[in-house]
Amino acid sequence: MYNSIKVLLLYAIFPMYGQNQDMPIDGVAAIVGENIILKSDVSQVVGMTALQNGIDVERDRALLEKLQGDVLSSLIDQKIILEMAKLDSIEVNEKDVDRALEQQIETFIMRAGTEEMAEKMLGQSLNAFRREYWYDMRDRLITEQYQQQLIMSVNINRENVVDFYTNYKDSLPMFPVKMKIRHLLIRIKPGEKSRLDALDKIKSLRERISAGESFSDLASRYSADPGSKNNGGSLGYIRRNQMVKEFETIAFTQNINTLSEPVETQFGFHLLETTEKSGEKIKVRHILISPEITEEDETRAYNYAMTLRDSSKSLDSFKRLVIQFSDDEPTKKIGGDLGWITPTNSPIPVIAEVLGLLEKDECSRPVKSDYGYHLLWVEAVKPGGYPSLETHWIEIEEITLNHRRMEYFRGWVADARSNFFIDIKE
Length: 426
Prior knowledge:
Number of helices: 15
Shape: flat
Low-confidence stretches: 1-25
């Protein structure tokens, strides 16, 4: 059922795959009550599923037939879930549908690179897509809400966890060691000369744009932001609280198609141009010039981090230093808490690389990442290894709950199918 749910969501996200391809004359794949599933619907999802998973179905006829069968079964389940949701009067707010649709469009643009490329991929304009797939998005949200409502009614007790562990312990995965990590970040800040050189360069670019040179061309040639420079500096649509405060304040308040003065953030100096405004989101492009970091700047940051390390004698003193000195705004107010980390889920890859070298209840030496130098504190450790109720109760309890909910939902769908006329065509 997990795979079925994944396919259903894939269908909701990529209903247009192949729309601008040469399609055969359409036909009916299945009838579910008063609903019809077209063969083109199945083909679209099969194609996108194969593309997403790197499957060459043209070379494996048996795999293609299996995928087609799985997709058709999932689409049937989707229709049934939607009809049952309607019987239970499940509704969604129109604003939620609008918001979800806009987020989906933003995802398409991000994947395609530009709005033009997204429209080419969709085979239609974005406005046409909004009109055509609004009801599909509404149905998707209704289905998701109803499914969540159903599985949230399933709970477990201690006996359920013990029984599940007894029956499945040999097939449970090995658990990794987990560490509860806190960090204090010292950014490597450029010296004043590098800062002023970057300011002079961004001012020069502003003069060139004002004189008529192309913003996009200059962004492609000079911007230090690798994520946007190849798109002419475009960041696409952004919402509030997605960017650093100094950047966002100017981007949301300046007039449309107005070139900003240089804006300084922790990343350097920006030129901003807001090209569209729509409610709580804007479309913006920028050029970033970052001051050069010298070896002297790195040494200064490292020595400063070492000084703070020498003052970190206990967890409480470390947390006080984080609140006072850390350059990581999202975590400094909570004492640098990064949560429970394993090598596979570390928010900062370099931290995962040194987990095995860290000692509990002491401050690490400075660890360098793309963000600067980190001081790390291991607050607690959960042992890994073979699953056991004594050491991994919380993890096993979560797996048990997910399993019970999956089994319940699978049974619910099977029962619901009996309430509908289903005719699968050859």
